[in-house]
Every structure is written in C-alpha cells, then in structure tokens.
Amino acid sequence: xxxxxxxxxxxxxxxxxxxxxxxxxxxxxxxxxxxxxxxxxxxxxxxxxxxxxxxxxxxxxxxxxxxxxxxxxxxxxxxxxxxxxxxxxxxxxxxxxxxxxxxxxxxxxxxxxxxxxxxxxxxxxxxxxxxxxxxxxxxxxxxxxxxxxxxxxxxxxxxxxxxxxxxxxxxxxxxxxxxxxxxxxxxxxxxxxxxxxxxxxxxxxxxxxxxxxxxxxxxxxxxxxxxxxxxxxxxxxxxxxxxxxxxxxxxxxxxxxxxxxxxxxxxxxxxxxxxxxxxxxxxxxxxxxxxxxxxxxxxxxxxxxxxxxxxxxxxxxxxxxxxxxxxxxxxxxxxxxxxxxxxxxxxxxxxxxxxxxxxxxxxxxxxxxxxxxxxxxx
Length: 378
What we know:
With 378 residues, this protein is an alpha/beta fold. It is 36% helix and 20% strand.
C-alpha cells in the first residue's frame, strides 16, 4: 500500500495537526515506508515510524495513548489524523472429524470496510500452522475454488494480513500457552503473488526479531498458481520463505480447464523454466501442490505427465484430497487411485507426500465461510 501524503493537507494551530480527510485513515494499513512519509509530513524524525510500527505490530495497542515512547503532542497529532482499527472476529468454528485432539479451527474476520476474510488454524503432532488470506476474493476464478466464485474485491493490506496471524496465535495460546504458531502458509483466499508488495511487507513484519511475535521466514510458505514475474521477483528478493505452486495438472490443456486464467497467462513451459530458475537461485525445492480430482487428473497418464514436468527442477510433490464444496461438481478420488498415483511418482524417483484434508465439517476449503457470509443480505 502506498499513501500519497502530499494530498493530505496538514494544518498547524497551537502545535496541533489535523487533516481534512474523512474518514480517518487506519494506521494499521500503512507500511513502514508509509509511516516514514507520514512522520516527514508531520515534521517528525524518521525513527518515530519504527516506534509506531513496533507499538502496532509487536504490542498491538488499540489507542495512540498507549504509545508511551511518543510525546503527548505527537500522540495527539496521530489521533487526529489516523484511527487504529483492528480486524473483528465474526465467527469461530472447530472441526469435529475423527474426534481430533487438535481440531482444525476456522475464523471469519471482518475488515474495517465490512469485507470478510477467513483464516484457518491447523494443528498436528509437531506443528501449529496458520493458513491466511492475501485478498478479499480472487480474480482467477478456478472452478473448484469457493473463493473464485466470490470474484475479486480487493487486496489485503500488510497490516490486515498480519492481523490474521495475531488472531490465530491468540487462539492457539489461549488453549495452550506453549502451543503458539510454528508455521504460516499463504494458502487462504486470493493469490498472494498478485499482492506481492503487501505479502512481503507482512512477512518482514512477522519475522522482525525483536517483536513479540517473530517467526523465521523459513517457516513461512507462499503458495501461488504460478505468477511467473512474481516468482522471479521472490527468487531475487533474498527472502528465505518457501514456495508452493498449485499445479493440479502438468498437461497444458487440462490445466487450462481447471485454472483457465492462470494457465493461459502463465503456461506450463514458461512456468517450468521459472521454477528451475527459482530453485537455482535459492537452492530450495519448490513444493508442487496437486489436488486429485476424480476422473479428471488422477489417471496413470496424468501421473506420468506430472513426473516428466517435476523432474525439470528441484521439487517435492504434495498430493491433496479435494475438499467438497456445496454446488461445485468435483469429487475426491478413492484411496486405491491415490495410492496408485503416488506409487508411480515414488517409482519415478520423486519425493511425494499425501496431505490429509481436515476441516470438512467447518467448510474449511478456501473461501466457503466468507462466501456464505458475503451472500447474506446486508
């Protein structure tokens, strides 16, 4: 997010600054660069931006009065220019399948403009993973995804992305003080690499060493449909995050039927080259996410095509079950088909895992809960 502070006219009267813009801009939406620009506009030294950023994203203050390292005059200027508006928890659901000791949990959050996003907390024996959204809706319209059916509304700010993490971490800590988040995946609503600036800004905030919440970038995964220019940008960024690519078919025509916009804009041949470049520059494998759909991409020929594609760069393959969505006509494969598919890839010398689908009882597939909430009459 970039704010043009030159268009915000500040007036000085008896050392009090105020702005004519209405409503007040949510300061949580400002990047660190934006905060530095705001401080310059107010005649304040640039180090104040870092102090404000820390109060917002490490201490999670709800008012400017709590920013006690700032002088009273600056706090007053800030309160007259900005608001502090956090995300609002609207719904919180827990899965019940198989009497899980650590159930999958899903939350629905309202943004200040009344849009909704959802985030998921996934617990396992050794991990507590936050699955977060990067956009309200999604412009890619993949037919198997509930978020795509919502259409695209807007990108999330870096502050809104980080706010999802803090909400999930609070839920995890409330149940078990030792059960804090260990991993973050950008696999919720939206395409992260169509909102790269804010995703990178959020990751930098979430991995800031002296903040109360700090997670190594090596424990953060960006999942993408394969936005080639942004994959190249991430490869050169110096970030230590992991990359996952939602492939779902290694056949160009078939992939276009499943992911029409993404597959046509970023064809497999070019995507393979970009992933080879990525692994060459970073030295890290790419995770290929492949959702098995009954009668569509689950044949032995599909496995052979996937194996040929995957051998062109360093990767591991993650097979996932389809999570049924109301009114969308796809079906999950049976265990025999899945095992056959996996075994062929293993025999081809590839690293393959199968990820069990959790959260079916709480509509935990991307966008289902938010889509239902958005469809309600206002």
